[in-house]
């Protein structure tokens, strides 16, 4: 199990210390949530912060683009230092092209979907991706409650991966805490994103251990 703290909930006044502490605690990815105020009703951060984080750490930067027509920005996120670039299937009319654009940058290719979107929508492109992010809240904000009904999507992705000999990672994002993490682990998740639950601890090795099921 991998753990990906969502920087949305960190203390930005101490960003450098936060990143060092996340790394020392044994987390695997830095989850970087980009919001455009159009695809989701909130704004977050983008290139200048990403570039500075990239200059500071070798951790895998897992970029979650909650952005309308993300193909406009894929090259820029690759250049700014993302390692994984994940786009929403609902955010573009041309998901196949968007995924191909990510592949062409040499970065890892991620796809994601909102809680209200059926998982079957992803079938035509699952062979193209390195990571599938299952949203377990409606994107746009940290600190929301886990939507249990999304667990069946994790199970589906697991079975589909086995049946078709694919190798994407299954990542879960939204409302992940000590309780919901266990449901995700049981359903077959590989990576857990956690924001509010992770950063409420003083010692980040605790949520890392709990989320890894140790
Ligand atoms: O993408 C998003 C929200 O849109 C997430 O990555 C959140 O930032 C996770 O925060 P918690 O639900 O864990 O507090
Ligand atoms: Fe996210």
UniProtKB/TrEMBL annotation:
Residues involved in substrate binding: 6, 64, 140-143, 173-175, 195-196
Note on cofactor: Binds 1 divalent metal cation per subunit.
PROSITE patterns: RIBUL_P_3_EPIMER_1 (PS01085), RIBUL_P_3_EPIMER_2 (PS01086)
Binding-site residues for a divalent metal cation, renumbered to this chain: 31, 33, 64, 173
Annotated InterPro entries: Aldolase_TIM, Ribul_P_3_epim, Ribul_P_3_epim-like, RibuloseP-bd_barrel
Name of the top EC class for this enzyme: isomerase
Entry keyword set: Carbohydrate metabolism, Isomerase, Metal-binding
Reactions it catalyzes: D-ribulose 5-phosphate = D-xylulose 5-phosphate
Positions annotated as active site in the UniProt record: 33, 173
EC number per UniProt: 5.1.3.1
Pathway(s) this gene product operates in, as recorded in its UniProt entry: Carbohydrate degradation
Cofactor: Mn(2+); Zn(2+); a divalent metal cation; Fe(2+)
Stored Pfam families: Ribul_P_3_epim
GO molecular function, one term: D-ribulose-phosphate 3-epimerase activity
UniProt function note: Catalyzes the reversible epimerization of D-ribulose 5-phosphate to D-xylulose 5-phosphate.
Record PANTHER family: RIBULOSE-5-PHOSPHATE-3-EPIMERASE (PTHR11749)
Family statement: Belongs to the ribulose-phosphate 3-epimerase family.
Protein name (Swiss-Prot/TrEMBL): Ribulose-phosphate 3-epimerase
The species this protein was found in: Macrococcus armenti
């Amino acid at each position: 199990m991998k753990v990906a703290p969502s920087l949305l909930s960190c203390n930005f006044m101490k960003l450098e210390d936060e990143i060092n502490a996340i790394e020392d605690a044994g987390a695997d990815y830095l989850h970087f949530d980009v919001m455009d105020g159009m695809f989701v009703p909130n704004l977050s951060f983008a290139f200048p912060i990403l570039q500075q984080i990239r200059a500071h750490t070798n951790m895998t930067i897992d970029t979650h683009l909650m952005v309308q027509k993300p193909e406009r920005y894929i090259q820029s996120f690759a250049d700014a230092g993302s390692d994984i670039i994940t786009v929403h299937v609902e955010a573009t009319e041309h998901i196949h092209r968007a995924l191909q654009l990510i592949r062409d940058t040499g970065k890892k290719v991620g796809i994601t979907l909102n809680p209200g979107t059926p998982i079957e929508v992803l079938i035509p492109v699952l062979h193209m991706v390195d990571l599938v992010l299952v949203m377990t809240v409606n994107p746009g904000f940290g600190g929301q409650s886990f939507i249990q009904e999304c667990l069946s999507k994790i199970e589906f992705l697991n079975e589909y991966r086995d049946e078709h000999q694919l190798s994407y990672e299954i990542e879960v994002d939204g409302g992940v805490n000590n309780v919901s993490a266990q449901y995700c682990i049981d359903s077959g998740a590989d990576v857990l994103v956690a924001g509010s639950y992770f950063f409420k601890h003083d010692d980040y090795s605790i949520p890392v251990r709990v989320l890894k099921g140790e």
